[in-house]
Amino acid sequence: MVNSDTVPIRRALISVSDKTGLIKFSRFLTDRGVEILSTDGTARSLREANIPVFEVADHTQTPEILGGRVKTLHPLIHGGILARRDKAADRAAMDIHGIAPIDLVAVTLYPFEQAVADGSDVATCIENIDIGGPAMIRSAAKNHKWVSIVTDPSDYQLIMNEMNTHQGAITRNLRQQFARTAFARTAAYDAAITSWFNDRLGQPVPEQLTISGQRRETLRYGENPHQEAAFYLTSAVRPGVGTARQMQGISLSYNNLNDTDAAFELVAEFDRPAVAIIKHANPCGVALGNTPVDAYQHALTCDPTSAFGGIIAFNRQIDEAAAKAVVELFSEVVIAPDADARAQKIFSEKKNLRLLLTGSVPELDQKTLTVRSVAGGLLVQDRDQVRINASMLKVVTERAPNPSELADLLFAFQVCKHVKSNAIVFAKGGATVGIGAGQMSRVDSSRIAAWKAQEAAAALGEEEPRTTDSVVAS
């Protein structure tokens, strides 16, 4: 009786667009007597490395056609993958049709997601929609009782370790794990294609919504210590916490990530240098400035007490002056598009500070969705991208705001978008001077904002209330 607990690898089909680790992996296989079948581009790479390989076209006696669109869609390929070794009828069909079993399939799909991220034209994106690859992946994953499927070059080492441990065979448990990974990969790939079509057709909230995420890391815990949590990346390309490089510091927590995202999205609202200081997803200080350090210092004066242990976001590269100012106060995270060498050196002296560099700031008009789970469903809306301008305002007071007041009002309205309702923002001189957030009564939010402004004035030794000559937005 055929045993499927461990399946020896005798023949492998390798067809990869991502050549990472290809040569090392393929040489490992051939050194152990594994026959390799491959498509044209992959076969060429193997031959250049003097690794023996049989081209799929020679194996099937059918050339690649339609400019390479049809390569592996052939019964000798899919029959070899899908055949059930313990079924007499399947074995008989293999004998009749000359189908050789394929024990291992290694496929990386055409880089459709990267083509979209690069802003490629429609024709290029279409040609990067893989057909044969997903078909082979799904066939191998379906028949994981007998076939191993690997879709990520980072998993090659697992295959090699397993074969070394089990005399050239793969265990059922690892095949099941790879099958799960394979179906997740094709689901994510199809989700990316669907999202691209939705964007092209102007359907931000489509009838069928597919969301796919790749786990970036398992977090220590969620919002509370008893909750499990992880951070997933989606195919949406938007500069922020998902694209940032962490330059230093311990790993980020669930709350760190949530607050850092809120901070960076806030400063992305502004064209001028801007800084936001966030605690518990609400700003405790936001300001514009001529330089990053100028913006930071004005943001800090809004509520220096609450700013302690906060998240600081810049929408400009951090220079030495800004870094020196930031490290005077304990902060959990600093996020910015970049930081120059001197700034990074200053930050490196604060070992517990996390520094995230995103490379750029998200464009305000970039269309993305926000998603919130509710019991039994999802609430989905397009991101609030409106920038309030003077033409949208209706003056109902006896006196119209002067140009300086109008500028402060427009600034305060943009900040208000990022303050939990009921939200009140007092602003003056391109900086917040009092923020009230999250109260059931707008009156209470106003009182809190005014009280915060009064506290800040006392801490700064100012005799005049900071709300004097300010504007207020809600």
CATH class of the largest domain: Alpha Beta
**Main beta-sheet strand count, sense and barrel state:** 6 strands, mixed
Give the tally of structural domains: 3
Regions with pLDDT < 50 over 5+ consecutive residues? none
Distance, first to last CA: 75 Å
Helicity range: 25-40%
Number of DSSP E strands: 20
Mean of all residue-level pLDDT scores: 90
User: Which fold name is given in CATH as the topology of the largest domain?
Assistant: Rossmann fold
Biggest sheet strand line-up: 10-15-14-13-11-12
Keywords for this entry:
17 helices, 20 strands, alpha/beta, 474 residues, Cytidine Deaminase, domain 2, Rossmann fold
What order do the helices and strands come in, and which of them pair?
Blueprint: E1 6-8, E2 11-16, H1 22-31, E3 35-38, H2 40-48, E4 54-55, H3 56-60, H4 75-82, H5 88-97, E5 104-108, H6 112-117, H7 122-127, H8 132-142, E6 148-150, H9 156-165, E7 169-171, H10 172-200, E8 214-219, E9 229-233, E10 245-248, H11 254-267, E11 274-279, E12 282-288, H12 292-300, H13 304-307, E13 310-314, H14 320-326, E14 331-336, H15 341-348, E15 354-357, E16 369-374, E17 377-382, H16 403-416, E18 424-428, E19 431-436, H17 442-459, E20 471-473
Parallel strand pairs: 2-3, 2-5, 3-4, 5-6, 13-14, 14-15
Antiparallel strand pairs: 1-7, 8-9, 10-15, 11-12, 11-13, 16-17, 18-19, 18-20
